[in-house]
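Is magnesium ion placement plausible here? Inputs below.
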Amino acid sequence: QKDVLRVENLKTYFYMKNKKVAKAVDDVSFSIKRGETVALVGESGSGKSMTALSIMQLIKKPGKIAGGDIFLENQSLTGFSKKKFERIRGNEIGMIFQEPMTALNPVFTVGNQIIEMIVKHKKVSKKEARNKAIELLEVVGISRPEQIINNYPHQLSGGMRQRVMIAMAISCEPKLLIADEPTTALDVTIQLQIMNLLFKLQKKFNMAILLITHDLGVVAEYADRVMVMYGGQIVEQSDTKKVLFDTKHPYTEGLLNSLPDMDHPTLRLKAIKGTTPPASAFPTGCRFAPRCPYVMEECISQNPPLFDTGNHHLSRCILHKEGVETDNNGTGNQS
Ligand code: SF4
Ligand code: MG
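Reply from A.M.:
I modeled the complex. Tokens:
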């Protein structure tokens, strides 16, 4: 399978009034193939959503893409004008968010919004678009679509709204779907239904999915590969099994330790001590050093590169410096 998306050394910086620069995404590289699901995990503030918004060219001032490049099937997107990118967004790349209420327009019926999306990208009549909208609502498992199409977003449940968002996102059969915490706001049974729906659609359209989540259960179930983000950088990356069961980076270890203990379900979560540093004030050395149980003298002076510990299992930690140093390139390519 070919790479659908290739992100190379992406830097998304925010230039603040006090002259500080917040490095929300700092030299991130990865690629996703057709049909593949790659999960991006990490605590909030680690740069996951900023990475997604950068790909979608939705970064607002004072933020901007300060470096690197993004390729959609070998076509560089970073030089695209706003207008040219409009054709990519929604058409070749679909996106669903955590809270569909913010992405759906409250003053239009869901039908109108799906129809508008279709008409924008495809040369079809309104009538054809309407039929297509009804068909899409059926595809995402909404019964009585002829009726639902006339509803306003607030008349639907959270799960239904998310299904509508998915219908919109897949309306043009995108090559890549970016799902940013698609089920976080939903209750557990609905979460499962939505995730299963997403992966059924993935097979149907052979889409690549970039799945942003902090739910490692979802990752274990659905992702082919995992990238763990911390402080705007990828700190561990490999196949899902390797990351979850042969964990390298102390941060990933901390995330896994913070999962509820199945043998002692009443015990409280053991969260990682401390908080994510703000992107405007990263430590000079390893960005995880202030929270790392293994911190050593040399961790303080320099931010480690990504080391390949073998078979493209990457870790940004001095503990793995016997591995092959990569050029920060998350694809595992060695410099
Ligand atoms: Fe911990 Fe040092 Fe590794 Fe950073 S480089 S994760 S501080 S051991
Ligand atoms: Mg987020």
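Short version: Confidence is low (pLDDT under 50) at residues 265-269, 329-335.
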